[in-house]
Design brief:
The complex is a heterodimer of chains A (112) and B (188). Chain A has four helices and no strands. Chain A is rod-shaped and about 95 Å long. In chain A, 78% of the residues lie in helices and 0% in strands. Chain A is an all-alpha fold. Chain A starts with 7 loop residues before the first helix and ends with a helix. Chain B is mainly α and 188 residues long. Chain B has nine helices and no strands. Chain B has helices spanning 9-22, 25-47, 50-66, 77-105, 109-116, 125-130, 135-145, 151-158, 162-179. Classes of the chains: A mainly alpha (112), B mainly alpha (188). At the A-B interface, helix 1 and helix 2 of A face helix 2, helix 3 and helix 7 of B.
């Protein structure tokens, strides 16, 4: 809103600058379509990147899990009691935990 | 007096909040429909070329979508939008200047000259009048008289202090009056 008193020059310029409103004619719809397409491409890229990243990280993650399991097996039995007996379930827990974290992170990214 | 596009200010703020919270493209579509006329008219005044102006307006709304979180909600949304439009225009102008420099370096002076002059033959009286002003003066005059922005809003859009905006407006008016031989307060 104009914040000063307008003189004759201003009124003349107001009239001079007055332009008829530009009809939308699908202009806004075109932009919204482009934005939606970009969003879809970004989501698709994210899914593809997650799959590729998961596939690439799978072997090192499993190697790390195996290493952690073997470390647990080598620990003295009396230190952790029945840990050695629970080794298969520990591996599953670690693997499952890693997968859960990766999935949660991917879903968070997708939402963003 | 130009219509005040900031009239639906609080509604604009609600729509912006919806866009930011849910990436709501429908709400953004409403904002575009509401302000496209002012943005396109503003860019048409700056460029003098309707097609180029509409391309820049599309770029402007796409940039605005990407940078919407930088809108703090303190000024009017149209003021912020015109700031994005003005930046888009300046970037495009820099690119086209660089393009023409490259053409000149490559020995294509005729093409370079054509690239710089984008004004259409059906240039209106006002566009011829505005051609006497610098880009910045043209932008500020258009924001004030075509879009009805206040000095404070123009100051936010251009990054100049309010005093500088006032002096640029005064200087531009004087320049137009002198150049086109219009005596004070004698406008038919």
């Amino acid at each position: 809103m104009a914040d000063y008193s307008r003189d004759a020059d201003d009124r003349w310029l107001d009239a001079l600058f007055a332009a008829p409103p530009v009809a939308d004619d699908g202009f806004s719809e075109r932009i919204v379509r482009r934005i939606r397409r970009r969003q879809q491409v970004r989501r698709l890229c994210l899914v593809v990147a997650t799959v590729i990243g998961g596939a690439t990280a799978w072997q090192p993650a499993m190697a790390f899990t195996r290493f952690a399991v073997s470390l647990l097996q080598e620990l003295p039995g009396d230190l952790f009691g029945t840990v050695a007996e629970a080794v298969p379930s520990t591996a599953m827990l670690v693997g499952g935990g890693v997968l859960f974290l990766v999935t949660a992170f991917a879903f968070r990214l997708l939402e963003d | 007096m130009a219509p005040n596009p900031a009239a639906g200010g609080s509604d604009d703020h609600r729509l912006v909040a919806r866009v930011l919270a849910h990436q709501d493209t429908a709400a953004y579509g409403t904002l575009i429909r509401r302000h496209q006329s002012h943005v396109r008219n503003f860019l048409r005044r700056l460029c003098g070329d309707f097609d180029l102006a509409d391309d820049l307006a599309q770029d402007c709304f796409l940039h605005a979508w990407n940078k919407l979180e930088t809108y703090t909600g303190q000024g009017s949304f149209i003021g912020w939008l015109l700031k994005v439009a003005y930046t888009t225009f300046l970037q495009s102008k820099r690119r086209s200047r660089r393009y023409s420099e490259v053409l000149v370096e490559a020995g294509h002076e005729a093409d370079a000259t054509r690239a710089v002059h984008t004004l259409t033959p059906e240039l209106a009286d006002l566009d011829r009048l505005l051609a006497a002003l610098t880009d910045e003066e043209r932008a500020i005059m258009t924001m004030s008289y075509a879009c009805g922005l206040s000095h404070r809003e123009i100051s936010e859009a251009t990054g100049h202090p309010v005093g500088t905006v006032k002096s640029i407006l005064f200087r531009s008016k004087e320049k137009l009056k002198v150049r086109f031989d219009i005596p004070d307060h004698q406008h038919g």
